[in-house]
Write a structure and sequence with these properties.
Blueprint: H1 2-13, E1 21-26, H2 28-39, E2 44-50, H3 62-71, H4 73-89, H5 93-103, H6 114-133, H7 138-145, H8 153-158, H9 194-205, H10 224-235, H11 241-255, E3 265-270, E4 288-293, H12 311-327
Parallel strand pairs: 1-2, 2-3, 3-4
Length: about 325
C-alpha cells in the first residue's frame, strides 16, 4: 500500500501519466518487487526480484545446508570439529577459561546459561555465513579452517572472528543473552531497524536460520525454539512457535509462496547464496523467468557490470534487459 501511494504520488507530481513502472528489489525487497507486481499490476508493468526468498519458512535450516555445500566436506568437517571442541570446553570450569582465552570472551561468560551458549554459537556461525552470503573471501575461510598449522579447529575458527562486542566499556567480547533487551527499545531511531525486522520475522516471515538439521556442522545450539523464545522475550508471551507458524502460513497463502499469481517478473538467484533455496528457480510462465547465476551469491546481479563478469552473469543481465524491453513495448 505504501509503495502504491508512492508510485501514484510520483506519477502525478512528475506528470508521468501514461508511463510504465518496472520495480526492482533485492533480498526482502526482491519479495516486495514481485509481490507489488502481483498485487498492483495496474501500476507495475513488470518486476526484477533478485535473490527473493518468496517461500517463507519458520525453520530455515537449509540456510546452513547451502553454506556447507559451498565450503566443501573438508572445511565443513573442520567446522564441526570446532563446535565439538567448544562443546567439550563448556563442560568444565577449566574448559570455559580456555574458551574465554581462545575467543577473547569477557570473564562474565561462565558457560552455565543455555541461552548465553546459544548466543555465542550463533555469533560464531555468522563469521562464516556472512562470508558465503556476501561472496567475500570464501577461499580465505576454507584455507584457514583447513590449515592444520593454525592450531586446533576452534583456534582456526577464532582467526575468522569478525563479530565483536568490544567497545569503550569492554576490552573483551561481552556475550550475554540479555543483550536482546536492546530490541525492546521502542524509541524512534531512523538508523536502527533491528526491532522492526525482528517483528516481521515473528509475525510474517520466520526465516530463522537454525542448526536443526542432524548433519550440519554448526552443532545444535540454535534450534528453532531459541528464535521463538526471542520473539516471546521481546514482544510478549503470546508469541509461540505455533503462533509464528500460523502467521507464516497466512503470509504464504496471501502471496502464493513458490507459486505466486504473477506475470512479467524475473527471479535471478546466485548458486552460492544460501537464500536461493527459498527462491523461484524455474520459470512460472512465458513472462515470468528464473535464472541461476553460477558462482555468485546474494543480489550480486544488481551490481554494476564489470569486464570481469562471468558468462553466467552476463547471460543473466542480458535476460533481464530483454525482459524489461518486452514489458515496455
Amino acid at each position: 500500500m505504501n509503495t502504491e501511494q508512492f508510485a501514484l504520488y510520483l506519477t502525478k507530481k512528475l506528470s508521468l501519466e501514461g508511463n510504465k513502472w518496472v520495480v526492482f528489489g533485492g533480498s526482502y525487497a526482491g519479495n516486495l518487487a514481485a509481490w507489488f507486481r502481483e498485487k498492483y499490476p495496474n501500476i507495475a508493468i513488470g518486476a526484477i526480484a533478485s535473490s527473493a526468498p518468496v517461500n517463507l519458512v519458520v525453520n530455515f535450516k537449509n540456510y546452513l545446508g547451502v553454506i556447507i555445500e559451498v565450503l566443501g566436506k573438508e572445511c565443513s568437517d573442520n567446522i564441526r570439529k570446532a563446535y565439538m571442541e567448544m562443546e567439550n570446553l563448556l563442560k568444565t570450569p577449566e574448559g570455559v577459561i580456555k574458551l574465554r582465552k581462545i575467543l577473547n570472551l569477557c570473564d562474565n561468560f561462565d558457560g552455565k546459561t543455555v541461552n548465553d551458549n546459544r548466543w555465542l554459537a550463533e555469533e560464531m556461525m555468522w563469521d562464516i555465513a556472512v562470508a558465503v552470503q556476501s561472496n567475500s573471501n570464501i577461499s580465505g575461510v576454507i584455507n584457514t579452517m583447513n590449515n592444520p598449522s593454525g592450531g586446533t579447529p576452534l583456534e582456526r575458527y577464532a582467526k575468522l572472528q569478525t563479530w565483536t562486542y568490544i567497545n569503550d566499556s569492554f576490552t573483551c567480547n561481552y556475550v550475554n543473552y540479555t543483550q536482546i533487551a536492546i530490541l525492546k527499545n521502542t524509541t524512534i531511531n531512523p538508523h536502527k531497524i533491528g526491532r522492526q525486522w525482528m517483528y516481521q520475522t515473528c509475525t510474517e516471515f520466520g526465516y530463522f536460520q537454525t542448526s536443526d538439521a542432524l548433519d550440519y556442522a554448526f552443532g545444535h545450539y540454535f534450534p528453532v525454539e531459541y528464535y521463538a523464545q526471542q520473539c516471546a522475550d521481546i514482544f510478549g508471551p503470546q508469541f509461540t512457535l505455533q503462533s509464528i507458524q500460523k502467521a507464516v502460513d497466512r503470509t504464504n497463502a496471501y502471496y502464493g509462496g513458490l507459486k505466486p499469481n504473477v506475470t512479467n517478473v524475473v527471479f535471478p538467484n546466485g548458486s552460492l547464496d544460501p537464500w536461493h533455496s527459498l527462491g523461484i528457480l524455474k520459470d512460472l510462465n512465458n513472462s515470468t523467468k528464473a535464472v541461476m547465476i553460477e558462482n555468485y551469491s546474494h543480489v550480486q546481479d544488481m551490481w554494476a557490470s564489470s569486464p570481469s563478469d562471468t558468462q553466467s552473469l552476463k547471460n543473466a543481465h542480458k535476460l533481464i534487459e530483454q525482459q524489461i524491453g518486452e514489458y515496455l513495448k
